[in-house]
Amino acid sequence: MIDTTTFEEHRRMLFGIAYRMLGSVADAEDVVQDAWLRCSQVSTPVRDPAGYLVRTVTNLALNRLTSAAATRESYVGPWLPEPLVTRPDIGEEVELAESVSLAMLVVLESLSPLERAVFVLKEVFGFSFREIAGMLDRGEAAVRQVGSRARAHVQARKPRYDAPAEVRRQVTEEFLAACLGGDLNRMMELLAPDVTAWSDGGGKVKAALRPQRGADKVARFLAAVIAQPVDDPQAHAVDVNGRPGLLFTVAGRPDAVVCAEVEDGRITEIRIIRNPEKLRHLPPP
């Protein structure tokens, strides 16, 4: 059996695995809770509690990914992960998030469920192919092949941004000031010529159904969004999956989470999450 103390010792790791596989805070928390319910009912001794817990969480997450495939295919507009939002000064939570940017989660979303599981367990959490094979009830050679394929896929699409956090935060804040001030010229200066903006409303709130590409198009799109009349709009500096970002509230309620990628002092990518279901886990700032 696995006691509560042992489970709590591994909760952060279990959540990290589930979140990276599912791209959803709520689903990851549900999977971790389901794993605890299952493991707490085991009456026989467990020789490797950590391995048993990881195996349980991984397989529960795989089941969810498989059942969610149809939902993702019919999703209205661009799909973005559910953001993990923290205050910039919360070290422990940032540590959990710093290897799982929104850009990386989007790349992981393009993997098959099995590839995603193997990649997360091997490349992020350092389990061996032999251990992963045991968790997934598959041959080691087959798992090694899946892992190699997944790693090559991710490396070919992996975002390569090395701007320090303080630079990303400064550029993000300057861009916000330009947006709020209606300074279209300054917005254009801070956007890379080939910038792309994705907005995820899930068909529930207003959002662009296709990515916006190019500095002029992105700047005008964002200027139009900000110009919409709303009740008591506020912008709050936060960390979004370990990177500087913004939380916008309307009448005290979360309305949008924004995260930008910065390269050479300019914004190259912007992700805007407005789907209310993906923001419901956020407490009022």
UniProtKB/TrEMBL annotation:
Coiled-coil residues are: none
Domain RNA polymerase sigma-70 region: residue ranges: 7-69
Q: Which domain of life is it from?
A: Bacteria
Give residue ranges for domain SnoaL-like: 173-269
Start and end of every RNA polymerase sigma factor 70 region 4 type domain? 103-153
Keywords, alphabetical: Sigma factor, Transcription, Transcription regulation
* Recorded family membership: Belongs to the sigma-70 factor family. ECF subfamily.
Q: How does it assemble?
A: Interacts transiently with the RNA polymerase catalytic core formed by RpoA, RpoB, RpoC and RpoZ (2 alpha, 1 beta, 1 beta' and 1 omega subunit) to form the RNA polymerase holoenzyme that can initiate transcription.
Q: Please state what the protein is called.
A: RNA polymerase sigma-70 factor
